[in-house]
């Protein structure tokens, strides 16, 4: 087993937003980053370039993490170029439409489950065997506070995020004997480039209701993920950790 640093970390959906911040922080901690992207090689390349400029190691890998064949190909490429994945951060997401119940369809729900159940399952199946062989591993799901808050007109997303909590807890119990921890980090509303078109008044309204009276940053979320990826979190598994300024209490 490697030391607490210099491990291979795969972050899905890491070309921008929260995923990019997580990748940068893990790199600062000394890990070697496999940056997964789907839509923009240029954006992923920029994140990798920033990491390398700061003395870290990073490579980019294209894959739709809802597609088993693409995941298998990506993991082969990572294994060949970097070695087996020891830290898996499941972050990739897609469109998140808000719809009233009457307009919500089963397909709407399936679209969200593709990202928050199917993708974590496929990524875990592809990486857990090598973690078991090493008897060390970290799986960190990126969830959301919406499951506790029950946001209206958002049922498909809320339900899928709840299912992701269930995966986390069950896998944590199953994999604990191999020294593989599985946790979920649940951010509040942290503005990223996907929220560029949201009116500032909506952001202000959200922040005013948070006990800390502000929105969080991607870096604050990344710090918690980095802790869970470290040896310092060796006895933490099956947990949902909220990063939302006290907006929910579990």
CATH fold field value: Rossmann fold
Strand segment count: 7
Distance between the termini: 34 Å
- Helical segment tally? 8
CATH superfamily: NAD(P)-binding Rossmann-like Domain
**Low confidence ranges:** none
The first-level CATH class is given as Alpha Beta
Order of adjacent strands in the largest pleated sheet: 3-2-1-4-5-6-7
Q: Can you tell me about this structure?
A:
The protein is an alpha/beta fold and 250 residues long. It has one domain: Rossmann fold (3-Layer(aba) Sandwich). It contains eight helices and seven strands; from the N terminus they run E-H-E-H-E-H-E-H-E-H-H-E-H-H-E. The protein has helices at residues 17-28, 41-53, 68-81, 106-134, 146-149, 155-175, 200-209, 218-229; strands at residues 8-11, 32-37, 57-62, 87-90, 137-142, 180-187, 240-243. The protein has a seven-stranded parallel β-sheet with strand order 3-2-1-4-5-6-7, with helices on both faces. The longest helix is centred in the middle third of the chain and has 29 residues, at 106-134. It is globular and about 45 Å long. The chain starts with 7 loop residues before the first strand and ends in a 7-residue tail after the last strand.
């Amino acid at each position: 087993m490697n030391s607490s640093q210099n491990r291979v970390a795969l972050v899905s959906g890491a070309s921008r937003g929260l995923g990019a911040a997580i990748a940068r922080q893990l790199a600062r901690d000394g890990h070697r980053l496999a940056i997964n992207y789907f839509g923009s090689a240029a954006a992923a390349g920029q994140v990798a370039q920033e990491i390398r400029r700061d003395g870290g190691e990073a490579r980019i890998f294209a894959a739709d993490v809802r597609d088993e064949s693409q995941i298998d190909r990506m993991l082969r490429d990572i294994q060949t170029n970097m070695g087996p994945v020891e830290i898996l951060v499941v972050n990739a997401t897609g469109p998140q439409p808000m719809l009233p119940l009457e307009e919500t369809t089963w397909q709407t729900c399936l679209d969200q489950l593709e990202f928050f159940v199917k993708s974590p399952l496929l990524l875990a199946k592809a990486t857990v065997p090598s973690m078991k062989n090493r008897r060390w591993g970290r799986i960190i799901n990126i969830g959301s506070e919406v499951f506790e808050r029950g946001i209206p007109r958002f049922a498909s997303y809320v339900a899928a995020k709840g299912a992701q909590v269930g995966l986390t807890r069950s896998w944590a119990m199953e994999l604990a004997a191999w020294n593989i921890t599985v946790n979920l980090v649940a951010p509040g509303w942290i503005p990223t480039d996907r929220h560029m078109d949201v009116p500032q008044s909506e952001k202000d309204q959200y922040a005013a209701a948070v006990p800390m009276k502000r929105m969080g940053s991607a870096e604050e979320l990344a710090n918690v993920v980095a802790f869970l990826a470290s040896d310092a979190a060796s006895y933490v598994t099956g947990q949902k950790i909220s990063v939302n300024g006290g907006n929910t209490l579990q």
